[in-house]
Structures are given as C-alpha cells and as structure tokens.
C-alpha cells in the first residue's frame, strides 16, 4: 500500500500537467469558435482574467486565509510581473499571432517554450548544463526532439490519414471570420513575419513567467493566493489595454452563446484552476518540468481539429506526435535522475550537531550538554588542522 501511495505521489504532477495541456488545447478550439462569431480577441483576454479573478479570489480567501502569511511589497511586485509576463502580455501577443498567421502555426511555435525556459533557467542558475552525465544529455536531446516533432507536425503534411470515421464541422457559417489553419502562414509575407514575431515574443514572455513563478512560489507558497494575485494584475492590465485599442462597446456584450462559453471556460478553468495547478507543479518539480509538457497541446489540437473542426489529419502530424512523446519522456527521465541524485547528495550547508558529554560539563552546568556544531564544507582538512592547533 505504501509503495502504491509513493507511485501515485510521483505520478501526480505528470497527470496534472497532462490535464493542463488538454484544457489549454480546448481553449484554442473555443477561441476559433469565438472569432468565427465575430468577437474581438482582446476582449476575450480581458474577460478571461475578469472571470478568473471572480472565481479564484474567493477560493483563495476561504482555503488559505488561516495559513497565508502577510503580504509584502516584494510579493506584490512579483504578482505584478506574473500578471504582466504570464497574463496580459503573452495572451495579447498570442491573439495577434492567431490573427496574422494561423492557429496551427501559433500552437506549434508555442513548443519553443521548453528551449527558452531551459536557456533562462541556465541564466538564472536554476538548471545546470552537465553534458558529461546521461541526465544532462537526455534533457538537451529530449527538448530538441520535442521541438523538432512540433515543427514536423506543422511544416510537413504527407499523406492524409483517416483514423476516425466521423467528422463534426462546428463552423456552420462566417468561415471568413476566423484564421485558416495551414502549415506556412497566411496573407502577405510581412504580416506573417509580424505574426511569427508576436508568437515567439508571447512564448518568451511565458517562459520568463515560469522563472518568476518559481521564485514567487518559494517566498509565497500559496498556489491559490498567488494565482488570484496574478489574475487581478492580469485583469487590470488587460482591461486597460483593451479599452485603449477597442472602442466598440458592443464587443463587450455577452449572451448565452459561444462567447460566454469561451470567456467562462478560459477564465475559470484555464486561467483559474489550471494556473493554480501549474503553480503547484512549478513549486514541486521546477519550471523546466512544467514547460516540457507544452508539445502535448499541439497533439491534442491536431486530433481535435481533425474530428471537431473538420480539419484533415496527415502523416506528418502522427510522426511529429511520436517525436514529441519521445522527447517528453527523455526530459522527464533526465529530470528524475537529477532529482534522485540531489536527494542522495547532502547539501554543502548541511550541519551536523554532535552532543558531547563530560564530567566537567555535568558538574559545572548542572547536567547540561555541551553542543558542538560542525558544518560540512569542502575544506575539511583545513578545519581539522585548525581544530588540532586549538
């Protein structure tokens, strides 16, 4: 029974991150439906964080009001950075990429997040590049393999593969209102390059948020409260940005239609529940572990598109999916090896407390114990020599 509980505890972050990617993939499908209905994507982002704040703020107050520590200026500033780099900025840049390129292309470019996160983690000293060890090589090869598989899914089609016998086309009308999904882009070359730059900038911002979130999680280990703070900041920034650029007030009207479903799902499920799950996983396994699951979203989008959005599935999508899964397992294997090694090797700052009892101490201190604290350092020989001289 204990072994089973240990297995469940180890697999919990993996299962949760798979659920996160599936939820993020479905929100892309809803985005396409909302655009097809004529809704402004900037308004979608603003409503997304408004709904997320309304959902997660009361939950954070109820669940963490007794354990939550006092708010500091540092935590508040980190929350603002999370709301900027993990909320308003990447979401609006991603929406511009969706409008200027295609959903498939923007989703594929999002798989650069592991590489960007790995580079930023190296810069901040949160990850170590050790090519002499098998774990370090696995992380590098796995990240590159996953990104290569994502690119293969986008830029190589191959023959069409019919896996399922049914297709449901949810775009019944207004086909010209939503971006067309294809491999290389749409529109003029200049607009496509601008959209590609927007997509890359969005994922760079998201990778930076993972680093900031890891720092914030250590100082403020309350996932619901940190998520609520991020959503509040994201809502303020998104609403301000949208009101500056979107002057048509009719875009803010919601009814019992796909618009309400999109913003409610994006706000409550994706920006509320899923961000809290991501924060917990970052605190447990680190930012690189979270980012390597990003390619799974492209796999789900490819299969959902072929069955729900009446998009064709090609051999390149299947081959890319296999590469993504292989790369994912390589990175997870490397991370697991490093975690085991870090648990076995004692830290440099570990202290060993030795209790020394002597007759003099018993007489002079009334039975109290003389305690000597030794700190493990690299210069053990020097410490021993100094002890002998004294």
Topology of this structure?
Elements: H1 2-36, H2 41-64, H3 73-100, H4 103-109, H5 113-123, H6 134-155, H7 189-219, H8 223-245, H9 258-285, H10 287-291, H11 294-307, H12 315-344, E1 351-356, H13 359-364, E2 370-375, H14 380-389
Antiparallel strand pairs: 1-2
Helix pairs in contact: 1-9, 1-11, 2-3, 2-8, 2-9, 3-7, 3-8, 4-6, 5-7, 6-12, 7-9, 8-9, 11-12
Description:
Residues 14-153, 194-332 form the EamA domain. Residues 362-390 are annotated as: Disordered. It is a multi-pass membrane protein. This protein is mainly alpha-helical and 390 residues long. The protein folds into two domains: 11-344, no CATH class; 351-389, no CATH class. Helices cover 70% and strands 3% of the residues. The chain is built from 14 helices and two strands. The chain has helices spanning 2-36, 41-64, 73-100, 103-109, 113-123, 134-155, 189-219, 223-245, 258-285, 287-291, 294-307, 315-344, 359-364, 380-389, and strands spanning 351-356, 370-375. The chain has a two-stranded antiparallel ribbon with strand order 1-2. α6 (134-155) packs antiparallel against α12 (315-344), α8 packs across α9 (258-285) and α11 packs antiparallel against α12 (315-344). The longest helix is centred in the N-terminal third of the chain and has 35 residues, at 2-36. It starts with a helix and ends with a helix. Residues 174-187 and 347-390 have low confidence and may be disordered.
Overview in brief:
The protein is mostly helical and 390 residues long. It has helices at residues 2-36, 41-64, 73-100, 103-109, 113-123, 134-155, 189-219, 223-245, 258-285, 287-291, 294-307, 315-344, 359-364, 380-389; strands at 351-356, 370-375.
